[in-house]
Amino acid sequence: KDILSLDEKKPYKLRYGKKEYKYSRKELIENREFNSGVYAFKFQPLNELIHKIESNNVQKEIYLTDLISLFNDNGYSVEAVSPSKQHVVMGFNNKSVLKEMDAIARRLVYDKIKDVIVIDDEDDFFIDEDVVQEILMMDSLGIPLDIKIGKGAYIGKGVKLNYNLTIMKNVFLLGNIKLGKNVTLNESVQMTCFYGQQTEIGDNTEIYRGNIIKGNTIIGDNCKIESGVRITGSDQYPSIIGSNAVIKGLTYIFGSRIESNILIEHSVILKKKIAKPENSKLDIYPIRFYLPDAEGKDAVKEL
């Protein structure tokens, strides 16, 4: 707007040092160099001059860019730097550009780890930067990672990956989650925990499709958490499941301690301790169809 307001027949003049420069309006409007709006200042001259910015422009607004001329007029040095990668100065005011920036960020991550782990869809995944650095650190040890990441998987901040790990399509992991070796998380598994909580999955354990595991939860080695299961633990009541356990059917577990070699099926387990009876000769002791006493029975009538 300032350039277009100039007299097209008169040159625009400015002085730098002892030399005067002249530009036509056409030269200015066709200039292909632009200011990205990213600055670094030394504090003392900034503090001295920032109060002297005036609104002497067409829009009558205050512009930080005026500090360039103020620095020059007061004998301070000003330097312009061209970025080696143009995307570092991208700005966005609409969703299409934001989507483009997301794609660039994802591509940068993919290029870092594409030869280290297997990613099914390079255009549809998210891995937090801290997790990426841990992947690269693990790779530097010279042991094959054998990590596979499915399409649409989200691996957020705080997640600790491990060797021989399979994370399938649309798995969502966020929070202080520690995965053991040889773990498989099937399609659409969700695992989250609040700040200060931790979720641990032991070695050789498989979490089946669509399961939700939340909060303070520990699942031991060689476990199978089959489809239809919800496991949650709070700060006061963590859920702890021992080794060689099988949880299946439409089962919900909250704040319970389940010892090793237990099978639970179609049950609701709330703040319970479950252990195999001492006189049992079964390798895996079954708990089926366990339901707590119902509340509000007087409100339930037959149709």
Instruction: Give Rg in angstroms.
Output: 31 Å
Shape: elongated
Measured as a percent range, the helix fraction is 10-25%
Strand fraction: 25-35%
Tally the helices: what do you get? 5
Q: Low-confidence segments, ≥5 residues, pLDDT <50?
A: none
Distance between the termini: 74 Å
Tally of strands = 25
Notes on the protein architecture:
By secondary structure, the protein is of the alpha/beta class. It has helices at 25-29, 43-49, 66-73, 95-113, 129-140; strands spanning 12-16, 19-23, 118-119, 126-127, 147-149, 154-155, 165-167, 172-174, 177-179, 184-185, 190-192, 199-201, 206-207, 212-215, 217-219, 224-225, 229-233, 239-241, 246-248, 251-254, 257-258, 262-265, 268-270, 273-274, 285-288. The radius of gyration is 31 Å and the shape is elongated. The protein starts with 11 loop residues before the first strand and ends in a 15-residue tail after the last strand.
